[in-house]
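Ticket #4471: structure export looks truncated?
Reporter: QA, pipeline team
Priority: medium

Steps to reproduce: submit the single chain below to the structure queue and open the exported record.
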Amino acid sequence: MIVRTGSARRALTVLAAVVVVCELGAATAHIGHIARRGYDALTAPGYPASEADLDALAFYVSPEALVRARSLIPPHATYAVIVPSASEHGAALAFRFALLPRVYRRSRHRAEWVIAYQVSSEHQGLHYSREIGLAPDVNLLKIER
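Actual output as written to the record:
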């Protein structure tokens, strides 16, 4: 079988056109989904960037508690975190991360503020002037000096 050069070019051009049409069809099939996700990202309520970075810590402690503690404890103030057991150590670490540049103290008696995480504030041997609820089972204590 003898193929003429002109018909081979024409067949190759038709094949290329078919491939381009298929690629464009595949690309446009996803545009609706991508556009919908982009629209939702722009219009959905979101966190400010300073709060959104705390969302990864939600496994350990409520982001609401972290945000409220950050807004109530002054920068460079000292604080301590009381947790019920060693199994809740992740909550203490989450507060330490979220509350930078505030200064963490291991001893609750040397801190200006104390976060009581899932423990009773009244039975900690602390004299405090204010108790502020940060989230369910999370309280912030302003220590009297």
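Status: closed, not a bug. The export was complete when the record was re-opened. Leaving a note from the reviewer for reference: The helical segments are 5-43, 49-52, 63-72, 89-98.
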